[in-house]
Design goal:
Number of domains: 6
Number of strands: 24
Distance between the termini: 100 Å
CATH superfamily of the largest domain: DNA ligase/mRNA capping enzyme
Length: 652
């Protein structure tokens, strides 16, 4: 009875983990833990003879999502039996010849070509029924849309996204919890998009690994000939090597060395018999084909000590746990950090500071905690947000617990405003990237703008942060100090008042004679009267400065900076009422922004496109066939060089 109960428990745990991973792209347990529990279930089923109908050892995958059309596969797509033992793999091979290839870690797709053109693409789904993703497959970067073979061709392969593209895409996602956990998750979501344009932007690639049907083609009873045929049709074929009992161990070692620099994600190898007739004669079990077997890498596991759990808040409110442990060498690199993903995983591992844990790299790439040998369970979940200091809450979403900060004003949620504040047209703090700001906010170092000018209080902590050091810290502080001397338009723009861009900030400051108090005390009617401001922006400005907390933030900021007064000029309205457009490269000015600022300081406006209201188009290539030149000629707008503009409008 105890063993039967354990079987039911294991089936429930493993199915929940698989559903979270494959259907929801959420990881609630490590791969190491899943494999351990799966092997325990297989052993118990063999021992007792009890196999539940919903056991993961029987069922294959999960039902596909409802948003895409469904289609039943002509023949079931089975999982592969697996081993981590190299000698067991050689024993399985026996005296046969086989092909050893990468087991790619992406999304399996079945492609059908008719008359040389792609007709249909269907995901593996649950092995019986998949999702139709034909439009998305047509955007795969290396997939041929037309092939020489004009008969009916059916093949299987893996849609994947390389590590380099995965990292580039993740770099564009500011939110820590919004980042994809691994390339497989990203690929799965990309291939199953409802909008194929999104798929096209994700650099999905396809690698063929099996030919299902190609009528009328003689392959000489060799699977390798099928691969060669597919390559001749223009398909990228998964890397493979012919092996026998004498060469297989050496070839496994080759793959083990290669995976370290391989850009395409792989979670192991596949060994498939080369003799097609013999392979077909072996048939299949209820779950596995008998002509193939998967080899999974034996994880390199190191024991270490958990020293700290870093809770990293993000702009969406999710607070992510990251384990910090004594550094260990794994797969040739030093590792000291691993994401724990959520509170559920913290609890399932029963973590506590000082616990002895084992760590590994999933797919030899991503650091993970394998087991907690101590299981003290003493780790305290933060009651307050590390960024804003206000109370946190635990949210249970479909059985997965996550830690959240419900404070709408949390500094970790203000990364966009901090990013604007340090940008070139605002306070211009070089080297203060969005990722760096997110780290500082997450650690509670910056909660408002003035805190950026007080970061020297955290010198030791910053120097110890990942990616930082003494020199990086000194460069950052130097850049911050340079920005202390600024102008009022830059300050106004940096506050992020809705609708107030760089140009509007200059208009505002010019109208009020660079008097900050006058701007802060102006009412909507007064602000609306300024040409170029309008009632909506005027309302935003008045509303911002009517807020006492905003005024306190500005007051704190002013104490940290020096607002330079512009030089008095008698021609501050010399270009009043004129509108200019600048295009092309400049010679007398370092960039367009410099010329733009000069024009605006003399009362003029600079627009982005030519219209009937444009005074002139400034372009050193007067005779070019650019779209702006063409529009200017059509509208009768004068085109003048930089030198002509200076002589006529600035010196004349």
């Amino acid at each position: 009875m105890e063993k039967a109960a354990r079987i039911r428990e294991l089936v429930k745990i493993l199915n929940e983990a698989s559903r979270a991973y494959y259907a929801e792209d959420v990881e609630i347990m490590s791969n190491f833990e899943y494999d351990r529990l799966y092997d325990e279930l297989v052993s118990l089923e063999s021992e007792t003879g009890i196999v539940l109908a919903n056991s993961p050892t029987v069922s294959v995958g999960y039902e596909s999502v409802d948003e895409l059309p469904k289609e039943r596969h002509a023949s079931p797509m089975l999982s592969l039996d697996k081993t981590k033992d190299r000698e067991a793999l050689r024993d399985w091979l026996g005296d046969n010849e086989a092909l050893l290839s990468w087991k790619l870690d992406g999304l399996t797709i079945v492609l059908t070509y008719e008359n040389g053109r792609l007709e249909k693409a269907v995901t593996r789904g649950n092995g019986e029924v998949g999702e139709v993703v034909t439009a998305n497959a047509r955007t795969f970067e290396n997939l041929p849309s037309v092939i020489p073979y004009e008969g009916r061709l059916v093949l299987r392969g893996e849609a994947v996204i390389g590590y380099s593209d995965f990292e580039k895409i993740n770099a564009t996602i500011a939110e820590a919890d919004g980042k994809y956990k691994n390339p497989r998750n990203l690929c799965s979501g990309s291939v199953r998009q409802l909008n194929s344009q999104v798929t096209a932007q994700r650099h999905v690639q396809f690698y063929a690994f099996s030919l299902v049907d190609a009528a009328g083609v003689d392959f000489g009873n060799k699977r390798s000939a099928q691969f060669e045929f597919l390559a001749r049709q223009g398909f990228s074929v998964v890397e493979y090597h012919a092996v026998n009992a004498d060469s297989i161990l050496e070839r496994i070692e080759y793959f083990a060395r290669t995976i370290e620099k391989n850009d395409i994600p792989s979670d192991g190898l596949v060994l498939t018999l080369n003799d097609l007739e013999y392979a077909r004669s072996l048939g299949r079990t209820a779950k596995f084909p008998r002509d193939s077997i998967a080899f999974k890498w034996a994880d390199e596991i190191r024991e270490t000590t958990l020293r700290e759990m870093e809770w990293s808040p993000s702009r969406t409110g999710l607070i992510n746990p990251v384990a910090i442990f004594d550094p260990v060498e794994l797969e040739g690199t030093t590792v000291s950090r691993a994401s724990v993903h959520n509170v559920s995983m913290v609890e399932s591992l029963a973590l506590g500071i000082g616990d002895k844990i084992t760590v590994y790299k999933a797919n030899m790439i991503i650091p993970q905690i394998a087991e907690n040998l101590t299981k003290s369970g003493k780790l305290e979940i933060p009651r307050v947000c590390p960024a804003c200091g206000l109370q946190t809450k635990i949210v249970n979403d479909n059985g997965t617990k996550t830690l959240m900060c419900p404070n709408k004003g949390c500094s970790a949620k203000m990364i966009k405003s901090f990013t604007l504040f340090v940008s070139r047209d605002a306070m211009q703090i070089d080297g203060m990237s969005e990722a760096t700001l997110e780290k500082f906010a997450g650690k509670g170092m910056i909660r408002e703008f003035a805190d950026i000018y007080k970061l020297d209080r955290y010198k030791d902590e910053i120097c110890a942060m990942e990616g930082f050091g003494e020199k990086s810290y000194e460069n950052l502080i130097e850049s911050i100090d340079r920005s202390r001397n600024t102008t009022l338009p830059r300050l106004i723009y940096s506050l992020g008042i809705p609708g107030v861009g760089s140009s509007n900030a200059k208009l505002l400051c010019r109208y009020f004679g660079n008097d900050l108090d006058a701007i802060r005390n102006a009412d909507v009617e007064t602000l609306s009267a300024i040409e170029g401001i309008g009632s909506v922006i005027a309302g935003s400005i008045a509303e911002y400065f009517a807020n006492s907390n905003n005024n306190r933030i500005v007051d704190d900021l002013i104490e940290c900076i020096n607002i330079e007064k512009p030089e008095e000029s008698g021609d501050s309205s010399a270009l009043g009422g004129m509108t200019f457009v600048i295009t092309g490269s400049l010679e007398r000015f370092s960039n367009r922004s410099e010329l733009k600022e000069l024009i605006e300081n003399k009362g003029g406006k600079v627009a982005g496109s030519v219209s009937r209201n444009t005074t002139c188009l400034i372009n050193n290539d007067i005779n070019s066939g650019s779209s702006k030149n063409k529009t200017a000629r059509e509208l009768g707008v004068r085109i003048m060089s930089e030198a002509e503009f200076i002589k006529e409008y600035l010196e004349g």
